[in-house]
Amino acid sequence: VMRTWVLLSAVLWCLTGVRCPRSTLFNAKGFLYGKTGQPEKIYVKLHQNSPVLICMDFKLSKKEIVDPTYLWIGPNEKTLTGNNRINITKTGQLMVKDFLEPLSGLYTCTLSYKIVKAETQEEKTVKKRYDFMVFAYREPDYSYQMAVRFTTKSCIGRYNDAFFRMLKKILDNLISDLSCHVIEPSYKCHSVEIPEHGLIHELFIAFQVNPFAPGWKGACNGSVDCEDITNRNILQARNRIEEFFWSQAYIFYHNFNKTLPAMHFVDHSLQVVRLDSCRPGFGKDDGLHSNCASCCVVCSPATFSPDVGVICQTCVSVLIYGAKSCPTSNKNQPCED
């Protein structure tokens, strides 16, 4: 008879998990000065306000400027004026509210001012251009790939299947209140020769912990940044599952005086790897976005992302930021991979 009570008792040892605060890269607070000759790359979290972009370099900001004028050009190459989304001050400072994918792109400001010779009143107009490349981004969605091993009496027998199903049910129950669940579970039985212990049979179990159990949207409470909530939940789910398996080792080695049942957890066998995915229209690119390498950055024109992968694929017919599909031409030419 399989010792199912061993696993069930371990549940009582599990902690509820510690809620880990999420720190956001580029929190859109503060001011950013321009630089002549090179665009500044700026990353703004979706639905957050952009930093204040200053139409001036830091060195010039410390000097007296005569008759300054500021001209902002947006990603659509049209002159920007203040509205309910874009705020432009009289001193040339620009901020974009509630940043969305289509607002990504090149923001250019031209500063014009005069240099006046006091003796002759001679005036000279100077123009400087400052470029800001602004990208929307979101946090990746986390999931965890886990692997663990249990000993078994034999690789032949239905009790291995029963044990596997019971373990999945226990783990699902452990994290169900977090709207997380176990997906893609699998196991294989192998014979393992261990020094000084001879040949034993072990179940090599693998599964993924995912934050999108049926009804997961209910946990969002209408939040537009639901990945913050789902990521917090999946971190708690990971903590609970890790504690569950750590408790297995504790129970065996402290409560059973090392007299182990035939099926038991193999100490130190738990392996955990985080898997990131991006929402459609977003992807990762360490080369292009090295300052936001862990972010899911909006796909640029000529690229798209139709699924929850992490790569923006090439599609020359895409003209917008954040494309989720690749439109074909009239000749039905396929998109490039």
From TrEMBL:
Name listed for the protein in its UniProt record: Zona pellucida binding protein 2
Signal peptide: 1-20
GO cellular component, one term: zona pellucida receptor complex
Subcellular location, record wording: Cytoplasmic vesicle, Secretory vesicle, Acrosome; Secreted
Keywords tagged on the record: Cytoplasmic vesicle, Glycoprotein, Secreted, Signal
Family of the protein in this entry: Belongs to the zona pellucida-binding protein Sp38 family.
Organismal lineage: Eukaryota, Metazoa, Chordata, Craniata, Vertebrata
Organism of provenance: Piliocolobus tephrosceles
Major localisation: cytoplasm
Domain of life of the source: Eukaryota
GO BP annotations listed: acrosome assembly; binding of sperm to zona pellucida
InterPro entries noted in UniProt: Ig-like_dom, Sp38-bd, ZPBP1/2_C, ZPBP1/2_N
